[in-house]
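Tutorial, part two.
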Amino acid sequence: MRMFLLLAGIVSLAVLAPSTSAQPQTGFTVTSTLDGRTVLPHSLHWLGHPSLPAAQVREVDFLIDSKLDHVEHKPPYVYGDDDEGRHLGSLVTSWLSPGEHRFTVRAVATDGRTATDTVVARVVAAPAPPAALAGTWERTIEDTSASPKPGSPGNPTDTGTPPGRYTITFDRRWIHDVFPCDTSPCRFNARTGGGGEFLSDWTPGAKTFTVRGEIRIRLFHDTDRLGGSWCYRDGPDATYSWSVDGDTLTLTPAGGHDACAVRGFIWAGQWTRVR
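Running the prediction step on this input gives:
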């Protein structure tokens, strides 16, 4: 699934918390669900709450270390999008370097006024994957005609699965999937899903791992290769067992089924180590 938003915006506000920077008020305020936090967990919902009625809010921007990472135009104003309020995206901190970072919500009114809320909070390092699993693996799927159909319960957000070479990389920050390219030069093909790349949140284990939804690391646009999620941006979660024999990795979803069936169609089976 690829759902993207465009840039825009500016800000300014006061929040009475030790980790929050205060700015001159401009007739309205905005607060953040990060207010009062000094250490962030691995994953959490990050929402902005302007004091204005929604009809008077043009957009709410989310910035990390002063860099615009996400823009919302409709409530709930949540980092990572909300699929019209049904599937809230999350701020996953595993991709950020350990240490302090600045997390800013910037609300922009329809008349151009702005308000901001900035929290300075520490991020801790994500756990490293087991050495046997870490790295990049590949598999070639020549025929993907049996993949769950777009719009079906197993592929509710129309993930394309072109035939060809897939790679999967297990990193402490994320699971990184790269789809086969079906254009030259390689670019994202919205019709087939070719050339697409997903970053998924996960928790590694000695014999199993749990995968969740999308990791958002920057603003995405419709033509970007990197962006989106297998099913919904918040999952569904799935647990996989894994085993390595030489250069062969075998992935098996718990109970033989991944609730995001299109992900299971690509992942379940054997992979060969690339590096």
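Helices lie at 261-267. In part three we will examine how such features are distributed along the chain.
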